[in-house]
Amino acid sequence: MSQKTIFCVLAEHERNVLIERTNAGLKSARARGKNGGRPKGMTEKYTKIAPVVRASYDAKKLPIEGIMKAFNIGSKTTFYKIIHSQKRKNMEQKRYFEEDFNDFVKEIIDNKRFSDSKEEGIASLVIDKGFDSLTDKQKFVFEKAISYFVYDKCSRCPNDIPWSEMSAAEDNGGMCSWCQQLTGHEKD
User: Using one digit for the tens of pLDDT, what is the confidence trace for 106-142?
Assistant: First the structure.
């Protein structure tokens, strides 16, 4: 046997021993309830502050960087993960066929409020061909994207918020125009 062959056999044996020990260690850790890898979801700290961060973001009184600094959030990725964890409920799909829905979607596109061009393209498709023309995947992306701009019901009364009032509802905490007027009169 040549020296090269001996070193190859020893290296292969060492590799096998290393794999065996690694697998034994992983098995032992799993038995103790430990799972390796990056933790799933947000940390407990971010889970606790998520509703307040979302409310600050929705109020639009501070820039994103200001909110991040106030809550000690290290990156925009984490910031948006927190925001998206507080997603508003999806509404019934029948509302996508109401008369002024397309005007609302066009307003979102015109104000460049979608986070990427894919969402904007799907929204344009909804305006041109209707919600039913979308594939299941496109419907999922569209509903997720639009859910950040939509309130299904008024936060004060059980009424649906008309699409023409949806932007105002986003600014006033989710109220229909009637409830918004009532709260304005109550403050006077």
Answer: 988 898 888 888 889 999 999 999 888 988 888 888 8
Q: Which two structure tokens, joined as six digits, stand for 21?
A: 């020990």
Give the three-state DSSP class for 33.
coil
Question: What is the per-residue DSSP string for 106-121?
Answer: HHHHHTT-SSSHHHHH
CA 154, CA 157: separation in Å to the nearest integer?
5
Cα(177)–Cα(27) distance, rounded to whole angstroms?
Answer: 60
Contact 145, 92 (CB under 8 A): no
Q: What's the chain's Rg over C-alpha atoms?
A: 26
Tokens 């041109």 sit at which residue?
128
- What is the torsion angle, in degrees rounded to the nearest 10, for the CA atoms of residue 80, residue 81, residue 82 and residue 86? 100
pLDDT of residue 91: 61
